[in-house]
Amino acid sequence: MGIEIKSMEYGDFNDNEALEELKKSGSNVLLSTVDAIINWGRSNSVWPLTFATSCCGIEMMATGGARHDFARFGIEVYRASPRQADVIVVAGTIVRKMAPVLKRLYDQMADPKYVIAMGACAVSGGPFYYNSYSVIRGVDQVIPVDVYIPGCPPRPEALLYGVMQLQRKIQALSMTSEKKQEGKSHRHRAEGKDVITKETSSS
Amino acid sequence: MTREEMTALVRGKFPDVKLGSNKQFPEFIAAPDQIHSLCTALKEDAQTKMDYLFCETAADRKDGFHLVYHLTSSALGHCVMLRTVLTDKAKPEVETVGGIWMAAEFYEREIFDLFGIQFAHHPDLRRIFLDDDWVGYPLRKDYKDSFTLEH
Amino acid sequence: MYDFSPLVDSFSHFFTETFSPFWAGLFSMLTLGVAILLFYAVIGLYLVYAERKICARMQNRLGPNRVGPLGLFQTIADLIKLLLKELIYIRRADALLFNMAPFIVIVASIMAIGSIPFAKGLQAIDLNIGVLYILAISSMGVIGILIAGWSSNNKYSVIGAMRSGAQVISYELSLGLALLCMITFAGSMQLSEIIKSQQDGWWIFKGHLPALIAFGVYLIAGTAETNRGPFDLAEAESELTAGFHTEYSGIKFAFFFLAEYMNMFIVASIATTVFLGGWLPFHIYHFEFFNKGMDFVPPVFWFFGKTAFVIYVMMWFKWTFPRLRIDQLLALEWKYLLPINIINLLVISFLTLMQWHF
Amino acid sequence: MEETLLDIELKEKEEYIINMGPQHPSTHGVLRLEVCLEGEKVKYLRPHCGYIHRGIEKMSEKLTYPQLLHLTDRMDYLSAHINNEAVALCVENAMEVEVSDRVKYIRTILAELTRIASHQLWWSAFGMDLGALTTFFYGLRDREKILDIFEETTGSRLIQSYITPGGLMGDIHPNFQKRTKEFVKYFRKKLPEYDQLLTGNVIFHERTQGIGIMSKEDAIDYGVTGPPGRASGFHCDIRKIAPYSAYPLVKFNQILFTEGDTFHRYLVRIKEMWESLSIIEQLIDNIPPGETMLSLKAIKAPKGEYYQRVETARGELGVYIVSDGGPLPARIHYRTPNFSNLFVLNKIAQGHKIADLVAISGSLDLVIPDIDR
């Protein structure tokens, strides 16, 4: 194709606000060193669960394929058993019948566990937002989400970027504080309406 | 077999069957209690041999539920479309054709799930897509639930 | 030239002279234990890394390359993560057996390493029944697998464990018989003696066709023993999600994971020792200049080089072949490998009796 | 999970039931199979679907034809172009308009490229099901080349919504012909590699030959179409039975076998890829000039009922539209190939081992959202 693609410097990725917020707090030297080692390990070894519901799953497979190669980041160890997986990439639509199963899968995973909502359907219901009697409008109504990847379906590059964001997020976490559940956003259903409350900045 | 021959054949055996207006396939409109015997006849008749039911579905129309069967013959290649109208919307019921074509068993489960049409003598009439405790039949025009967001 | 026995002897002298016999024994054991554990961890981790790189190579990919140079620290990151991951206790699982199983598996493979001769004198314990010992110990791992499958309270696990049990018990026969062929040649079960008998040529060259057949059978049976490659029925990702270790998380899962790779290493190193001359260099008869050059390479390199080759072949199997079905797997063993092996053993006994090997 | 009547009934009989799915690597999605085992042998199984039932048919009743087209991509996402084409053809038939030859040619080429891409992905996944993990990467490597072509012309990799009632969303990219020809040349060289890696393998033969035999009668009775149907000798290729678009103009063979086992279902797809390549070759140099979009005032189907059958990569897709004459359909139904192909699984997997069940369901090439819609 003749297009030279320059690799992006790591520093060129701009943190989003939530990450900056997480990084702000300090801790003592010893603990932060331990944190750094643990987070280095955790962030560089996120094993996804073999889980895909629809179209996005194909792009997830393509990401694992030869051209995009998930494996470079050490993420190629797809585990079929939720016990051994670290991240569940919700690739595709979640419907009302599937939601309890998804919740159960999430509960079966061992801590620390992360969730990536991949694709418009998992983020918000996407094309099925209106008029569908069965599609859950966003997987964050069922399980807490760490990283959202928009797109229908997102390109493999987008998934790679999402996973890298997750890695950066893990690196910003600390084992001492209560931050494990922070930075995940829930959407609560209040009186039949969806109210989005991002709990990212509270501390 | 041409449209005329088909019409003659079906009308010969089932004089009550009305002729539909579909341009694509020869269409016959049968009464609900007649549809099973019509299907059996179409499958077993050596001239028609309708052994492949490629589509069975329903539609919620003003005059009732229309149940539509698309049949073809794998050997002879001709198609036919059958229709039956279930006027009683409160309690629609029709004889299953699952015994004639296995495929129908699953199409009928789908129709039961989404339209609530009861198929008599169906061996395994359960919801197929929705949860067992789902209330209502979504593909009916009057279906309402608190979950759906109308656009 | 590269004899480790003086070094090892000086260590043991140091211990015996400094401490009383009891403490000397304890300290030398501890030193050995720590050394073996460290070795185990390093080899295990880098085998995982190697496998990921090799399979990436076969699949037109790059493989891990972000964590450290060339992704070398990838598996270390994995280990840290697995160490700190939550251990899930399964409700209504048999707690004792459930927790014991990974240890049985890993202890079996650690114990086997003790008697592998890495170089002259570099061997923790040189038993006079070394081959038998390794066979016995490494097949204990299957007990761990069976327990893991049974105690997990998971249907997939039970199927995986049962498959594994049937598989390992069957292939144990071929493995043993293939090694027996070589023992017949070498006339000893002591690993150092077996290596010594290959000083004038490796058994795979000296043993005519039967040795080659035995090597082939050994490789197949060995791959099956380790539950890998086309014989990974016990885990069978696409059938049983993760087979016998479906319910294990965190470090217990890591034990199974590591043990698989270490078993592969053990199988490969036995193949090296028995068939490929262990740490002996490659010699060509009457080609002194070449032989001298070969002698110059330290035996440790020879040993690891040969082992790496065998491991590579086993990885190659895994990434090329589809998986067998359980009945085909057992048919392969009982209908083909076992008869071939028995005939082979008879032929070899005859050859040895007649002194027809080189 | 919910305890079905079956569960209770089985507990009494103490049968060994395992649940494959909804999250299971070999069901390729969220299908759930309730498998009753005797040792490793499958006694019978019950498919449970609906874990991705999105109500596309209901939603479509609130959308105009060009709008509802976008939902069809998301049913069988591996045959996205072909699904679009089905709706487009159905609406065009209803409106009694005919698109230009250029559109027909382009649609057919895209459909065949889609078919190849879909079969490549199937080949990848099928190898994985059998435990040959390298196939996955070989298949995806070649598939990316097709996705590049799609991306250049349609702007999207997987879900294109490029074919629309009345023509195409836009003209093809100037590079389209060149790159498609490059791909055909490239893939003709790579296809034998597939055979080397899997087709010729002894273990693969052992695992697939004589496994999951489906008779022609069963195929017709259950309505199994596409490659699984044709492997059983069911003459069901809609491209031959009721040709549409540019298919009447091209020469190709319908691949038919009579054995009906897993191996022949595999073989049908491999041979279909060759046929698709030849179809593309026949068309790619002859795309006539013409407009790519008819100037239609409003896309409305006149009052009536319309049915369109097309051949997707997985079998026969039927689109059934009931129209009251407005811009919205009164009812739209998709007769999807996977729905019919799924239920034969119980019949053909009985008596085989659980590993064979994986191979058989892999050879049926199920796309779950296409079953559930």
How are the secondary structure elements laid out?
The complex is a heterotetramer of chains A (203), B (151), C (358) and D (373).
Chain B: H1 3-13, E1 18-19, E2 27-30, H2 35-44, E3 52-61, E4 64-72, E5 79-86, E6 93-95, H3 102-115, E7 118-120
Parallel strand pairs in B: 2-5, 6-7
Antiparallel strand pairs in B: 1-2, 3-4, 4-5
Chain C: H1 5-18, H2 21-58, H3 74-83, H4 95-113, H5 130-138, H6 141-151, H7 155-186, H8 191-196, H9 203-206, H10 208-225, H11 237-240, H12 250-274, H13 288-296, H14 299-320, H15 326-354
Helix pairs in contact in C: 1-2, 2-3, 2-12, 2-14, 3-12, 4-5, 4-6, 4-12, 6-7, 7-10, 7-15, 10-12, 10-15, 12-14
Chain D: H1 5-13, E1 16-20, E2 32-38, E3 41-48, H2 56-60, H3 65-73, H4 80-95, H5 101-129, H6 134-154, E4 163-164, E5 167-168, H7 176-199, H8 202-208, H9 216-222, H10 226-231, H11 238-241, H12 262-284, E6 304-312, E7 315-323, E8 329-335, H13 337-342, H14 344-349, H15 354-364, H16 368-372
Antiparallel strand pairs in D: 1-2, 2-3, 4-5, 6-7, 7-8
Helix pairs in contact in D: 3-4, 4-5, 5-6, 5-12, 5-15, 6-7, 7-12, 12-15
CATH class of chain A: Alpha Beta
Strand order of the largest sheet of chain A: 1-2-3
Q: What does the average pLDDT of chain D come to?
A: 85
**At the third CATH level, what is the topology name of the largest domain in chain D?**
Cytochrome-c3 Hydrogenase, chain B
Number of domains of chain A: 1
Secondary structural class of chain A: alpha/beta
Q: Percent of residues of chain A in helical segments?
A: 25-40%
What distance lies between the first and last C-alpha atoms of chain D, to the nearest angstrom?
22 Å
One letter per element, helices H and strands E, the order of chain A comes to HHHEHEHEHEE
Strand content of chain A: 5-15%
Number of extended strands of chain D: 8
